[in-house]
Amino acid sequence: MICLEFKRIVGKDLQQEFYSALDDHRTRLMEIFKAKRGNVGEHLAQLLQQMQSLDPTEKRTVALRGLPHLLGDNPTEFFKSSSDGDESFGQMDVGILLVNPEGPCQCQTSR
């Protein structure tokens, strides 16, 4: 629903724009992750070690998974998954929420 509304208003594909922007910043994020020290640096180093391939999706995943560490947030509270009818995340200040539609998906994935 959000993807369709975004495309209607802006005339661009939301997922494509998101992935493009993430790819633009991913290299710099990885450099920042490698430069971090202390507890945060250890967590980020573990994430970077988990990256097994040069697959863009895997690199995007590592970049996104490192964000809460970099921002000082709890990673378990930062990423949530929900169904369409679940409104329990209304109090979330910042985070990434994946909503699993109860019906067929209306967004096209383009990577």
What does this structure look like?
58% of the residues lie in helices and 9% in strands. The chain starts with a helix and ends in an 11-residue tail after the last strand. The longest helix has 22 residues. It has two domains: 62 residues, no CATH class; 31 residues, no CATH class. A two-stranded parallel sheet has the order 1-2. The C terminus is likely disordered. The protein has 111 residues and is mainly alpha-helical. It is built from five helices and two strands; from the N terminus they run αααααββ. The radius of gyration is 16 Å and the shape is globular.
Offer a few descriptive terms.
single chain, 111 residues, two-stranded parallel sheet, 5 helices, 58% helix, 9% strand
Helix content: 55-70%
The ordered H/E elements are HHHHHEE
Average pLDDT over all residues: 80
Main-sheet strand order equals 1-2
Low-confidence stretches: 103-111
List the helices and strands and how they pair.
Elements (H helix, E strand, L loop, with lengths): L1 H9 L3 H22 L2 H13 L5 H16 L3 H4 E5 L12 E5 L11
Parallel strand pairs: 1-2
Helix pairs in contact: 2-3, 2-4, 3-4
